Amino acid sequence: MHIGYARVSSTKQDVTRQLDALAAAGIASEHIYVDKKSGATRDRPGLHEALRQARPGDVIVVHTLDRLGRTVRDTLNLVHELRERGVGIRTLADPLGIDTSNPDSPMAQLAVIMLALFAEMERTYATERASHARAVAAAHGRHTGRPSVVDPDKLEHALMLRDKGVPMRECQWPLRSAHGRPVDVPAGGQ
What is the residue-wise DSSP string for 129-147? Predict the structure, then answer.
């Protein structure tokens, strides 16, 4: 049996492309497991269920190898564990096709190692590029990240209250009294 697994790193990302590829490969939707969680951990419900369902002779199919694990070590450990159980892995869109259902194939083993290494390197380089871009923007006085949703006047007023010793829970907006009731603050935060 073929078992599909798809993963994106956050709930904001779309898994449709992976699901479409798995369906096009002939995998029934009831045999496809999905996670919207970082690959930094193996504690992913969809992955656990796919692994639980896999029996000797089955093949776990993923869009690309990096959907299984984030690091070379994690990916290779998972591939090794599955091989010990008689379960193969096949990828659909990697530049080097992977199909470990034949455990004696040295090319499949080499492809797994190379693709896991390339995926980890790309994540490292992407992180470095993003960090550099943030540093350059900050050096030029530009804000990076999400735009602030806090009114600057309200923030200034809350900071002034904090500096006067008002507990942080009372510095929230709308400001609250010690009894938890909202406090009216005149315009300008006075």
Answer: HHHHHHHHHHHTT---SSP
SS3 (DSSP) at 38: coil
Which residues contact residue 170 at a Cβ distance below 8 angstroms, ignoring those fewer than 6 apart? 161, 176, 177, 178
d(CA 37, CA 69): 11
d(CA 97, CA 107): 10
Give which of 21, 115, 32 is closest to 70, Cα–Cα. Answer: 115
pLDDT computed for residue 189 by the predictor:
45
Catalytic residue, chosen from 9, 105, 148, 177, is 9
Superfamily per CATH, domain 2-128: Resolvase, N-terminal catalytic domain (3.40.50.1390)
109 vs 137, higher pLDDT = 137
Q: Considering the entire predicted model, what is its pTM? A: 0.64
DSSP string of 52-118, one letter each residue: HH--TT-EEEESSGGGT-SSHHHHHHHHHHHHHTT-EEEESS-SS--BTTSTT-HHHHHHHHHHHHH
Catalytic residue check, 131: no
Rg, Å, the chain Cα set:
25
Domain ranges of the chain: 2-128, 148-183
What's the average model confidence in pLDDT over 92-117? Answer: 75
* Token pair of 46 as six digits: 């969809």
Running DSSP on this structure, what letter comes out for residue 45? H
